[in-house]
Amino acid sequence: MAKVQLTIDGRTVEAEEGAMLLQVARDAGADIPTLCHNDEVKPYGACRMCMIEVEEHGRTRLVTSCTYPVKEGISVTTRSDRIFRNRKMIVELLLARCYKVPEIRAMAADYGIDVENSRFQVREDTCILCGLCVRVCDEVVGVHAIGFAGRGPDRVPTPPFKEPSQFCIACGACVYVCPVDAIKMVQTPESRTIKRWQRTLPMKVCKVCGEPFMPEYQIEYFTKRAKVPEDFFEVCPNCR
Amino acid sequence: MRRVNSQQELEALREEIRKARDPNQALVTICTGTGCHAYGCMNIVSAFKREIEKAGLSGKVGIRTTGCHGFCERGPLVVIYPKRIFYQRVQMDDVAEIVNETLKNDKIIDRLLYTHPMTEEVAIFEPDVPFYGLQKRIIFGNNGLIDPTSLEDYLSIGGYAAFAKALFSMKPEEVVEEVKKSGLRGRGGGGFPTGRKWESCRNAKGDKKYVICNADEGDPGAYMDRSLLEGNPHSVLEGMLIGAYAIGSDEGYIYVRNEYPLAVKHAEIAIAALKEAGLLGDNILGSGFSFDIHINRGGGAFVCGESTALVASIEGRVGEPRSKYIHLSESGLWGKPTNLNNVETWANVPVIIDKGADWYSQIGTEGSKGTKIFSLVGKVNNTGLVEVPMGITLREIIFDIGGGVPGGKKFKAVQTGGPSGGCIPESLIDMPVDFDKLKEVGSMMGSGGMIVMDETTCMVDVAKYFVDFLKGESCGKCTPCREGLLRMSQILADITEGRGREGDIELLEELGVVMKDASLCGLGQTAPNPVLSTIKYFRDEYEAHIKEKRCPAGVCKALITYEIDPDKCTGCGACKRNCPVDCISGEKKEPHTIDQSKCIKCGTCKDVCKFDAVTVK
Amino acid sequence: MSPDKIDAILDRYDRNPAQLIPILQDVQAAENYLPREALEAISEKLDIPLVRLYSVATFYKAFSLDPRGKHIIQVCMGTACHVRGAPRILDKMIRDLGVQPGKTTKDMAFTLETVNCLGACALGPIVVVDGEYHGQMTSPKWDKIYKTLKKAEG
């Protein structure tokens, strides 16, 4: 791939042509916040926190750095009043939706927002609609157990028909990737529950060490997909 | 219709069709656009068929159903050729008289003629009707001449000659150059130079390219594209064929809004006719150029008028836009270079190729060439579709062509650009209408909706209307649009329901600035426009709602009271009988009163009062 | 909805998953709504994750996952109709029918819906009953229409 030269905050930087600006800027030392970004999935451009200024052919505009491919000769500014003003309002709006969520409250305080006195009617949602859970389930795990329903302010990630999920394999990827801990997982010796999708699956116990290590349904799923021998999952990865 | 396999055969067919038609034969054309359907035009069509037969005129008088003529306020419309006698507000009962008097005896029926409401001038022939005379109908005018389901009709007025000219006497690059030279800019709202868009698609890497017609006309109050697609689908198809040839595409899509079944039907008929005639498919007219078209219907989502959301919809996904740092012309439908244009944009192309870019660029202003079709609706006398040269003033459109505001009310504002546009007050109505000027005053051209408002329109209510509309249409992907519209909606509800507070206006402005800057697509980026423009020009109305809890226009239910004027009330009891909550009391022939504590402000009493005794405060 | 009916619709579109929206439109045209069983069948036959069908069905306003009434009553909410008083007509219809827009009366006779601009602005406010356009709507006019409808339903 060809290399290009660009300036970031006044310094000249070299990067691969077509690489996303977010990583290039971070590699150059810029501090860029994100909410809907994760390296394991395709960039989504939904939260708008990563927006920074790019000057190209004499025109300056704000772009989401996670979806912007770098080009030769662009001039990037990662800190400005305009950038901060937008981020602050975005966080203020998310706070008004997820008023009790600790991660958002902390972020809001960082931006100088008066957390105790919201300018908007507050709601106590737990989800910031970043889409990471859906995208991970689609792109990484490939189970497609959840998706977005509806549109606009009432959009919500959910299993089909907003009923307990019948496809979720309780792998926990969505739990891990959620930036605001909105998806809770509960593990007992017998079963694992992904609370938000109302999915409880009995756990398989290792023949050797006796510890529960994987939901049985998940084992069935992988056995079918990966075509491994039937007894492959009789023993947990540690004992294997 | 037989198949034509060369330019010569096409022209021979055209000659044949023309020779078989006698321009001096009497022809009754009846508008059957969707608006006139609602007026019952199909009954009039049947009546004409019956009466013409009864009068023994079958074979001597032709009947042709056409698409929308544009003068929707005065429908049903009947135009009689060859003289072009113009009859308006025709009822089924008038048809016998028209046949026996006008068709048989050449007598004009005065009561069916158009009379100017102010000058009282009467127009007998269509070109003399000021509504039409002041327009420049180079695109829309053909609607009145053809049956949209007839390829022969379109050929008889010169259709597909421009396509054949491009195909056989111009190189694809030359076609692109001609469109560039014409100065044509997108008519869907973006106003991007069409020739440049074609050029970047033509130059994009890859052999497979798509062209798309965006017929997802979602702006409420705008129906130009619908009337073009219903009334002259071939003009759009011809434009797409020329564009596909210029760009190097062999496959196209027309994406039509779900709510336009007649447009879909007429487009399907037109495509089938073209296939039969060999003007669509492989090796068209023996040129080596092949092209096929599909029609996709929308699912009821305004956001699918946005190009990347439209593409997602064709691909079978939800209409979520994506950032356009990589343009559609580079990577669009199925990842291939794609050229998307609006219906009206496509319809301009055959005219440009036929008459030339030099002719076309004489019309309009420096930055905005050609004409624009506007839907002139709302508080205006002559509701309908008007086509005018760019640069005409708003005053000329609203007052000269539109006939001004009905009921003697005062003009207040005109909203252009739909939910993405802004309100323009009286002080600015002498401004020329063009892409850049409209942007300068805080509005935009948009797709061409022009909503006229009078003193009884509350501008805060208008802002709330647009915000609520967009809130329901937002895809919900990006934070500023999804959350911003929700909060704007709540603040405007507070203001219109008497809970407005100091600082609300400033908060709306603050939200607006961030939404414009940080939203992912045009829906969110332009959503603040109606709010910001009404604050700019009608701030006093906002302040009255907030500080005085008063709605000056008398619209916002929570801030008005209905009262019965005892001097005018005759005690007829109509209001009392119709009140849904039984809150009106009074004896027969005695003045009645409304119990304010129970009144739900539904306005029924005012509707049913024949004595104008109910006032709104 | 019978599997044969579903297969016929899928075959019409060459069983191409990209044609999901036209497929669902045909199902809705046949059944007056999108039955859950139909979605589950399409998911299996075209190998599309069920949640994707659910996403599409809940994103586009043309689709209804709830059965709809015998008579579909639609009120245009376009700007021109709005300034000519459509909201007040809608309020009256909500009172008369006893349901909010998007819902169906208990006896499954009437579904009330709001629709985006129909493009017949000269006749605003417009109400469409079973596909028939009624222009220049007023409270008394609606009363007449409603009376006729109720009579037809007995």
Topology:
The complex is a heterotrimer of chains A (240), B (617) and C (154).
Chain A: E1 3-8, E2 11-16, H1 21-27, E3 51-56, E4 59-64, E5 75-77, H2 81-97, H3 102-110, H4 132-141, E6 147-149, E7 156-158, H5 173-177, E8 185-187, E9 191-194, E10 199-205, E11 212-215, H6 216-226
Parallel strand pairs in A: 1-5
Antiparallel strand pairs in A: 1-2, 3-4, 3-5, 6-7, 8-9, 9-10, 10-11
Helix pairs in contact in A: 2-3
Chain B: H1 7-19, E1 26-31, H2 34-38, H3 41-54, E2 61-66, E3 78-81, E4 85-87, H4 95-105, E5 114-115, E6 122-123, H5 130-133, H6 151-156, H7 161-169, H8 172-182, H9 194-203, E7 210-215, H10 224-231, H11 233-247, E8 251-256, H12 261-277, E9 292-297, H13 307-314, E10 338-342, H14 343-355, H15 357-360, E11 371-378, E12 384-389, H16 394-401, E13 411-416, E14 422-425, H17 435-440, E15 449-454, H18 459-473, H19 479-496, H20 504-518, H21 522-526, H22 528-547, E16 562-564, H23 574-578, E17 584-585, E18 593-594, H24 604-608, E19 614-616
Parallel strand pairs in B: 1-2, 7-8, 7-10, 8-9, 11-15
Antiparallel strand pairs in B: 1-3, 3-4, 5-6, 11-12, 13-14, 13-15, 16-19, 17-18
Helix pairs in contact in B: 3-4, 7-11, 7-14, 8-9, 8-11, 10-11, 10-12, 11-14, 18-19, 18-22, 19-20, 20-22
Chain C: H1 3-12, H2 20-31, H3 36-46, H4 50-59, E1 71-76, H5 79-83, H6 86-97, E2 110-115, E3 127-129, E4 132-134, H7 139-153
Parallel strand pairs in C: 1-2
Antiparallel strand pairs in C: 1-3, 3-4
What would you say this structure looks like, in words?
The complex is a heterotrimer of chains A (about 240), B (about 625) and C (about 150). Chain A has helices at about 20-25, 80-95, 100-110, 130-140, 175, 215-225, and strands spanning about 5-10, 10-15, 50-55, 60-65, 75, 145-150, 155-160, 185, 190-195, 200-205, 210-215. Chain A is of the alpha+beta class. Chain A has three domains: about 5-80, Roll (Ubiquitin-like (UB roll)); about 85-130, no CATH class; about 130-235, no CATH class. In chain A, the strands form three sheets. Chain A has a five-stranded mixed β-sheet with strand order 2-1-5-3-4, covered by helices on one side. In chain A, strands 8-9-10-11 form a four-stranded antiparallel β-sheet. Chain A is globular. The model of chain A has no long low-confidence stretch (mean pLDDT about 95). Chain B has 24 helices and 19 strands. In chain B, the strands form six sheets. In chain B, strands 12-11-15-13-14 form a five-stranded mixed β-sheet, sandwiched between helices. In chain B, strands 2-1-3-4 form a four-stranded mixed β-sheet, covered by helices on one side. Chain C has about 150 residues and is of the alpha+beta class. In chain C, about 50% of the residues lie in helices and about 10% in strands. Chain C has seven helices and four strands; from the N terminus they run ααααβααβββα. In chain C, β3 and β4 (about 130-135) form a beta hairpin. Chain C is elongated. Chain C starts with a helix and ends with a helix. In chain C, about 45% of the residues are buried. Chains B and C meet through α2, β11, β15, α18 and α24 of B and α2, α4, α5 and α6 of C.
